[in-house]
Specification:
Helix content: 55-70%
Strand content: under 5%
Distance between the termini: 11 Å
Shape: elongated
Structural class: mainly alpha
Number of domains: 1
Largest sheet: none
C-alpha cells in the first residue's frame, strides 16, 4: 500500500474511481454477481405459491454503509486509504 501511495497521485486515484463507475471491479462486484446467481436459482426453484425473492435478499452486507461517493474527493480517498492501511 505504501508503494501505491508513493507512486499514485490524487488525480490518478480519481481516474481509477471514475473507471470503476464505468467498469466495476473488486470483491463488491464479485459478491453482487454471486448474489445474482443465487437470486436467479432461488426464484427458479421456489414453490408455486411462494413469494418471489428480491436481489437484496442475497446481497452480502459487510460493515457500515459506504459514504456517498459523490462527496468523495481524491484527497478524501487518499486519506481513507492511508487510514485503512496505516500509511503515514
Amino acid at each position: 500500500m505504501r508503494e501505491l501511495l508513493a507512486r499514485t497521485d490524487s488525480r490518478e486515484l480519481a481516474e481509477w474511481q471514475a473507471y470503476s463507475q464505468v467498469e466495476p471491479f473488486g470483491e463488491g462486484r464479485a459478491d453482487l454477481r454471486a448474489a445474482e446467481v443465487a437470486w436467479t436459482m432461488a426464484n427458479l426453484w421456489r414453490g408455486k405459491n411462494q413469494k418471489a425473492y428480491k436481489l437484496a435478499d442475497f446481497v452480502l452486507a459487510a460493515g457500515p454503509e459506504p459514504e456517498d461517493e459523490a462527496e468523495m474527493t481524491p484527497e478524501r480517498m487518499l486519506a481513507a486509504a492511508k487510514a485503512a492501511f496505516g500509511a503515514g
